[in-house]
Hints:
- This protein is α/β, with parallel strands linked by helices.
- The protein has 20 helices and 23 strands.
- The chain has a nine-stranded mixed sheet with strand order 13-12-14-15-23-22-21-18-19, sandwiched between helices. It has a seven-stranded parallel sheet with strand order 5-2-6-1-7-10-11, with helices on both faces.
- Helix 12 (311-324) packs across helix 18.
- Residues 366-368, 394-395, 418, 473-476 line the site of glutamine.
Amino acid sequence: xxxxxxxxxxxxxxxxxxxxxxxxxxxxxxxxxxxxxxxxxxxxxxxxxxxxxxxxxxxxxxxxxxxxxxxxxxxxxxxxxxxxxxxxxxxxxxxxxxxxxxxxxxxxxxxxxxxxxxxxxxxxxxxxxxxxxxxxxxxxxxxxxxxxxxxxxxxxxxxxxxxxxxxxxxxxxxxxxxxxxxxxxxxxxxxxxxxxxxxxxxxxxxxxxxxxxxxxxxxxxxxxxxxxxxxxxxxxxxxxxxxxxxxxxxxxxxxxxxxxxxxxxxxxxxxxxxxxxxxxxxxxxxxxxxxxxxxxxxxxxxxxxxxxxxxxxxxxxxxxxxxxxxxxxxxxxxxxxxxxxxxxxxxxxxxxxxxxxxxxxxxxxxxxxxxxxxxxxxxxxxxxxxxxxxxxxxxxxxxxxxxxxxxxxxxxxxxxxxxxxxxxxxxxxxxxxxxxxxxxxxxxxxxxxxxxxxxxxxxxxxxxxxxxxxxxxxxxxxxxxxxxxxxxxxxxxxxxxxxxxxxxxxxxxxxxxxxxxxxxxxxxxxxxxxxxxxxxxxxxxxxxxxxxxxxxxxxxxxx
Length: 559
Ligand code: GLN
């Protein structure tokens, strides 16, 4: 196979959470802004076969690709930064590598040989990365999860070390991200952790070509010189990555440090014929930093203590804000506390004035399991009754349907069978139990599915097209047996599957914005192209804020 691509391997040291994924994604954006075709991948050293079954509390959101891959949340950053769709195979874990190798061994593919980490596991890892290369791709950027020194990372480091020999030295660049901490008592930035981290990488046979140093301030040239000498990289390949107020500024900061030029030269990319054009990204960052208004959006969730669990939702809300020139003040509300919040705000006249009232908009995100569901239904009801713009995502749509069923269709105790297996009115149910509907097998509906929208509805107008496709990750669906009852009660089905059997979008007519989708549109939102449903939620939230307190909304008038 002819491998046309060049490869950048991004490793990290010293500490986790240094922003390796964002650094890799930012490099991707810079190379794309030079007109190169970029794809990205993540090698995750943990043993889980994929992150699909991992607890969001521990690992953050599960990002879903078009082809239904349940992947690490870094793939979301990659897609948002390089504005290219990735695939299930763009994320590889130790567990998935081992399960393929063991399956091959069971099939006899190794002809009775002893199956070992080197070469069998390392070959499998290299194959996965090479498969991402094609005639259409100039550069594959591959992030290795974890930090050098971790036990599980060793086979991955060995694979990327071998990779350079396999595809040629001019086709591979090793980028290492470290931390340069500032120690207040001595009043200095310290390079020792970087030195140790590079020593650790070298002990695996990898000499980094570029060292990106995370620090709170730009590194002075003296410090860069020191790192250059001690770690044996040219001084221009010591890149300072300063903390940024918005993640979308990082590509610009790394451009100022010349990162794309260094990497381009190392990979012998034709930089002369690929001048960079960052104008649209600069324009985006200008908008990020100059909002003229601010809106308060409540996210009613279960994993609110770890906002990473809702990373794509958060970013999609921000994108909606960028579109309207608004900053988004997110209030994380634990779903289980919603009824307490409402009862605390109960007034003598029976009305409720609560924290929810102070919101300009509400998002009810996806989720699994019963905990907090009644709170989400109560939040949907409150948003509906009080004209608060509200967007329901997946489980969010399902709780909106439960509320409409209970409150407007007179279906007492209506619920999803996921939360109440004995409910009299399973308005949301597993499809394989519906004889007249195609067999969903009770398994997860994953990845991209097409829907047909009803023209003239809010959803139809938002998208501006009749046929849309969105990514899914759920088991339950609106029960077709209840469709007409719900419609009679005022629920508008603004989009269904092309065979009209599955409800994909719902809304209410006489409400500023009460919209739900069975899909996860947050995965497709991009900073320069806010997703239409998030864009219109923020638009409606701005209107609510303006109606309530016009003088408060305009940030310029405050400052
Ligand atoms: N638990 C619900 C289902 O499986 C919703 C899933 C989700 O929100 N992603 O249908």
